[in-house]
Structures are given as C-alpha cells and as structure tokens.
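Peroxidase
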Amino acid sequence: MRRPDPATGLRFAAVSLILCTANICAVARRSSYALLLDDEEDGGGGGDGSASFSFFPQTQPRGLVYGFYDESCPDAEGIVSSTVRELYLANPNVAAALVRLFFHDCFIHGCDASVLLDRINGDKSEREAAPNQSLRGFGAVDKIKARLEAACPRTVSCADILVLAARDSLVLAGGPSYPVLTGRSDSARAFYDEVGARIPSPNATYTVTLDAFARRGFTERETVALLGAHSIGKVHCRFFKDRIDNFAGTGEPDDTIDADMVEEMRAVCDGDGAAPMEMGYYRQGREVGFGAHYYAKLLGGRGILRSDQQLTAGSTVRWVRVYAAGERGEEVFREDFAHAMVKLAALEPLTGSPGHVRIRCSKPVE
C-alpha cells in the first residue's frame, strides 16, 4: 500500500476536521449559530434551531474519498481549478451557471452528471425538462473535460468535474471553500421524468420549497443556507414578470415586493421580456458577489424570485434573520452553506459499476 506523504496527511486531517470523522459524523457540537442565537430574542422553536445537529448523513458516502485522482491523474483538480479561473475571468457569470448545473444534477439522483447528457436513443434528456431549459455552463464543462482528457484519457468523470467546478466557482465569486470528495462515476442514462417533480419552482411557496428539500434529506436550516447561492448570477424576466404585473390575477404587483424594487424589475422587463436581471443582491461595487447580503435584501422585500422572498413568509424567516445579522451572520451563513454543499455533493454517489467515465460529457460511453 502506498504510504501517504506528509502533505497528504495534513490534507486528510483538515478534511477530517471539517467532516468531523471518517464516517461523516453526527456528533453534537455548539455551532456558530448557537453563539449568535444567544443574542437573539427570537431563539425558540427547537427543531432546526437546536445547536446540536449534523449536516451529514450517518454513513460515509460510498466509494468517495479525498484525492481520488492523486495517482491516476495528479493534476486533475489543478486543471479544473485553473480552467474555471480562466473562464471566470472572461465571464464572471459562469460561476452561477456552474453552481446551478451542480445543484440541478445532484438534486435528482445524486451527482452523476446525468444533467449533461443529450438525448439517448430518442429518450428525452434532463436538459429538456422545463426546470432545466434555462441552464447554462455546458460549454464550460466541455472545456474542462477536453483538457482533462488530453492530460488523462478516460480517467476523470464528468460528475466529479461538476462538483469540483462548482466549489472552485464559488470561491472565485467570494464564497467559502470546502472539501470535495471524489471518485464518482457518470450515469449512463438521464432522468427526464423526475426533474419536474423534484426541482422546486422559482415561484414556489416556502412550504413547497421546504418539502422538496426535505425529500432529499435537507433540514429547514440547510435549505435556507443553500438558497444563498442565489446571491450571484442573473435571472430572466419570464421567471418573475407575473409578480410585477398581475400577481395571482389581482392586477397588482406582489405586495411582498418593495415598491422601488417593483420599478427596478419593470425597467428590466420593458421590451421583449427576455432581458436578464442581476439577482440584485450583489455587494456595492461588485457585479458578482456571493454572501449573506442576499438575506438582508429579502428582509427589505427585494427578493426577485418568489421562492426567495417566500423565505420571509414562514418559519424560515428566523434563519434569514440569523444570516442577515451583520458580520456574525455572514460567518454563520458561510459555515452553514459550506457544510450543506458537502452534504449535497454526497447524495447517492454513483461509483464503480454501473457507472462510467464519459469521454464527452454530453454523450454516453463511447
């Protein structure tokens, strides 16, 4: 057996610290949230409000390890990182596109790159399902894959590329770094019929959104944290136009939107309705900026998507308030978001047979 060098040992120790144990622990701990909640008046309620809970499943994700490609393709993660940086410098919006691809892939049958497939033998692809028709970033994944194939043919899965690229994109956009376990295989098929049932709508109420995430094993707290990814990117007018023109047949805007925000949204939608709008949560002076400022905007009635603004409509508002609480809230959010992303990346990993490593991410094994 190959003995790990000291650097490998340090990396393993760092990952073990974040994941608690090699078994992805369920150890109770006093989280940053608990420290913040001590200062909050609205701290009751139990459930997700408990400081003692785990973000992680009870067992280690099957077949996933840290540094899976260390021997078979030592430069794999570096190639992903450098290519993502190159793409980001050319167009910062690639970060949101890659993160959204990652989410829409992992939320169906785990991170198996099924969302990247074209039609197979006439069967519809996941890309054709209504919630996925606005997905972007496929070309970015193809560019990363081509470079990896040149360096290490038939070695690095498209599924691992998506997980790594999402993390690297978030870091470039100002988000937290977190450990990425690798060793996933690529699915040989897509799951078109399941996309519409599993991916929550941009117009969903908070109860519908919570239910969708709960069915994938996520708590209320984790759900609110993950939706913080909406602090970056753009959204097309067609996803929110009904909120500013004739909401629910009332002939009036959605009364949960700030009046000034309604005018900003209308200005974007003037014309053919296809114009994209910055999510509106970015930090002053930055077009793209990941962070808890998203939650402060929601408290001010400036959520563009109804599913975002709905986080202030029910019990989820307590988490919005926690994350919006200045520097301490930002710290809690970044910690929670990183843990929830690790959990999302560990859902139902496809490893070994019947998985494959595709040569081209849009095509089945050739």
